[in-house]
């Protein structure tokens, strides 16, 4: 069990640029979640996938944000035309949900810290 | 709309004390509740998960309780150590899968 892996750990970019983050979940996990956390706050839900299907998106996920999980394994989160307000820690989590496995806890990666100059 | 509140926002205790962190939520229709630990600049480490049908869970020096009807959970830490210093977050899960987090309690345990 290698845990949830996120890349890169840090990203600094200029306002208006596009950025893409990657998340590799725990291998047998069928659900993958994206959250955003700003300083001093708890994480806020952005979206989640079950296998390759995107099942829910938060209103926080404006049309500049897009997430994919093409083969039901790793996921990418892209932000287009970044703004100052996008500066945050982007966290990925995964879990195993099913009839036999029941309801397992979500396991988080170390996040990608995005800084917009 | 589900809201999660954690009190206190910060706590400082001497080493060896037993302590209680509080979490409250406004909608009792939860699937489960999870407690996490977060070290500065790091992701979240899952500590305990309590299903909606359970009253408590224990792991080592940690004990979490859940009272769904009153919308409360507590995390009890016995014999606190400096290594316990971190931010503790509680999160509730609805049947949709997403977690709704409180703002966290930042704990400092002084040697």
Mean pLDDT of chain B: 94
Shape of chain A: globular
- Percent strand of chain B equals over 45%
The N- and C-terminal alpha carbons of chain B lie at a distance of 41 Å
Helix content of chain A: under 10%
Structural class of chain B: mainly beta
Could you tell me which chain pair has the largest interface and how many residues each side has?
A: A-B, 29 and 25 residues
Major sheet characteristics of chain B: 6 strands, mixed
Number of strands of chain B: 11
Element order of chain A: H for helix, E for strand: EEEEEEEEEEEEE
How many helices of chain A in DSSP terms? 0
Name the beta content range of chain A.
over 45%
In short:
The complex is a heterodimer of chains A (117) and B (111). By secondary structure, chain A is an all-beta fold. Chain A is 0% helix and 51% strand.
Topology, element by element:
The complex is a heterodimer of chains A (117) and B (111).
Chain A: E1 5-7, E2 10-13, E3 19-24, E4 31-37, E5 44-50, E6 53-57, E7 65-68, E8 75-79, E9 88-95, E10 97-98, E11 102-103, E12 107-108, E13 112-116
Parallel strand pairs in A: 2-13
Antiparallel strand pairs in A: 1-3, 3-8, 4-5, 4-9, 5-6, 7-8, 9-12, 9-13, 10-11
Chain B: E1 4-7, E2 10-14, E3 19-25, E4 32-38, E5 44-51, E6 56-59, E7 62-67, E8 72-77, E9 86-93, E10 99-101, E11 105-110
List keywords for this structure.
heterodimer, A: 117 residues, mainly beta, B: 111 residues, five-stranded antiparallel β-sheet, 11 strands
Describe the structure.
The complex is a heterodimer of chains A (117) and B (111). Helix content of chain A is 0%, strand content 51%. Chain A has strands at residues 5-7, 10-13, 19-24, 31-37, 44-50, 53-57, 65-68, 75-79, 88-95, 97-98, 102-103, 107-108, 112-116. Chain B is globular and about 40 Å long. Helices cover 0% and strands 58% of the residues of chain B. Chain B has strands at residues 4-7, 10-14, 19-25, 32-38, 44-51, 56-59, 62-67, 72-77, 86-93, 99-101, 105-110.
């Amino acid at each position: 069990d290698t845990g949830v892996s996120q890349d890169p750990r840090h990203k600094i970019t200029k306002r208006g640029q596009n950025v893409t983050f990657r998340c590799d979940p725990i291998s047998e996990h069928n659900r993958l979640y994206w959250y955003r956390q700003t300083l001093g706050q708890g994480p806020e839900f952005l979206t989640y996938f079950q296998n390759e299907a995107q099942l829910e998106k938060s209103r926080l996920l404006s049309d500049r944000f897009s997430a994919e999980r093409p083969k039901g394994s790793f996921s990418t989160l892209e932000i287009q035309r970044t703004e100052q307000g996008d500066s945050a820690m982007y966290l990925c989590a995964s879990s195993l949900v099913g009839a036999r496995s029941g309801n397992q806890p979500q396991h988080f990666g170390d996040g990608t810290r995005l800084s917009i100059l | 709309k589900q809201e999660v509140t954690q009190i206190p926002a910060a706590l400082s205790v001497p080493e060896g004390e037993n302590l209680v962190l509080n979490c409250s939520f406004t909608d009792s229709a939860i699937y489960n509740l999870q407690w996490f630990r977060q070290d500065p600049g790091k992701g979240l480490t899952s500590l305990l998960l309590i299903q909606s049908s359970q009253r408590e869970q224990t792991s080592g020096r940690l004990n979490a309780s859940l009272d769904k009807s009153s919308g409360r959970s507590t995390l009890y830490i016995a014999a606190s150590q400096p290594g316990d210093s971190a931010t503790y977050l509680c999160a509730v899960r609805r049947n949709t899968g997403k977690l709704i987090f409180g703002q966290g309690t930042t704990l400092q345990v002084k040697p």
